Amino acid sequence: MKKCFAYQCVVMMMLLMAGVAFSGCDKLKDDMDGMNIPRADYLYRAMGDMDYSDGPGHFDTAIRTAVGLDPIVGGADDKVIEACDKCCEELKARPHKSGAVMIRKIRHPDGKWIVLKIYEL
Question: Is residue 79 a contact partner of residue 73, using CB atoms and an 8 Å limit?
């Protein structure tokens, strides 16, 4: 009987710890939902998996051309999305290109980020 109670306590502790971990994720998401803090600095980067070398690099080049690589006070979401939309259309016109690229908006200097947009080819 004592073993059964001990196992129940262990299971309850594990569930409690999992709940705390997931509520911490929600807190991080809440922090990132309020990312458009006017005085904060933001960077934009592409990550992904393409079927040819340096697929995300094309998106990073588009971002760099549109807004540069330095942190931007207040962010520039619209410019980045416009540049990446154009890049995606150009890549779709190439034969046999497939994969996905995620554009991340990264708060500087703490490094917290959200997905701004995902492109699938």
Answer: no
Q: What is the pLDDT along the chain (121 residues), one digit of tens a residue?
A: 555 444 454 444 444 554 544 444 444 444 555 555 667 899 999 988 765 555 678 899 999 999 998 899 988 999 999 999 999 898 888 877 778 899 999 998 899 999 999 998 8
DSSP string, 68-105: -SS-EET--HHHHHHHHHHHHHHHHTSTT--EEEEEEE
Using alpha carbons only, how large is the chain's radius of gyration in Å?
A: 21
**Is there a contact between 99 and 48 (Cβ–Cβ < 8 Å)?**
yes
Residue 28 CA to residue 84 CA, distance in Å, equals: 26
Structure tokens, 96: 């046999």
Residue 38: phi, psi to the nearest 5? -55, -35
* Adjacent-strand bridge partners of 43: 106
